[in-house]
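note to self — DONT lose this again. spent like an hour looking for the file last time. sequence + predicted structure for the chain T wanted, 324 res
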Amino acid sequence: MRDLIYVKNNELQSVAPPSIKEFCMAAPRGAYTTLQIANDYFAVDFSLHIERLIKSIAAVHATLNSCYANYYTALARGQDSQEALVLQAAVLPSLLLALTTAEKRCEQETLKLATIIVSPSEDQTTPASSSSLSIHVAVAPDPRCLQLQENTFATVLGPPREVPIGKDSGWVAQRQTLEALRPPGAAEILLTTQQGALLEGLVTNLFIITRSKDGEIVLQTAGMGDGVVWGTMRKRVSEACKQLGLKVLEQPPAAAERATWQEAFLTNALRGVQPLDRIECDERNVWGLEPWVIEFLEVPGQWTAKIQALVESSLQRTDLRNLS
């Protein structure tokens, strides 16, 4: 399977965009998620991706003129009060069609990526019903965007995203200006507040192992109240920290306190836990912040390695054929 497969509302499209990025930019704007598929039909942490779609729909709805009003009206009228089941039923037919098509075309890929965009129905003249959503699914070979160096760095460049908390396909187009500024070899571009507190990456959550004012080792990361994306891997990291007895401080790490930072890593559903060997503030950052650099000598650090191991062992693989 060399080409991207595109299914719209359970209909295979004869023409597909050349890449996941172009797919996100071409499809109607909406909440989206990208998950990993192993062995044709086994979705990694599928239930968490449904949960993220729920949160993203709510975030996009709140930010973009109540654009999912028909969906929420239909949901309120429905007999099934579990939104997760409603959304799963809406997404699954198109996803399975895309994966079945991919299986027929497949050469040797054991890993694939599936991007699901759930947008408001393009026909807003119909009354609220089960057709109040438009489902767009793209499946492509997993490029292991992760042909990244083991020790990588992230650079501070951008402001917060337009839609807080949720994953919004419109962000794919909006972030291209920042992508164009990405330094060679940078694993990620980081977003900050105007005061220089670190929020997240363009497509990742950011975590810092640091020492608190009372000397305690903690994991620090911006929280939902700061507008960062609710990540599936973020939830796995939180669970790992509970197992390790490591306190999580949901507060954007302030650059002014970077002398206390000991380890850093990024997460998303495709990269897993990705250790960083340094973070730098680029002089081209949008806020005009003073450039700075911090390096981490042990990569991965001991806490990052422990978290990484627990996260990898906690991933759940669901055979989507058993859900239909």
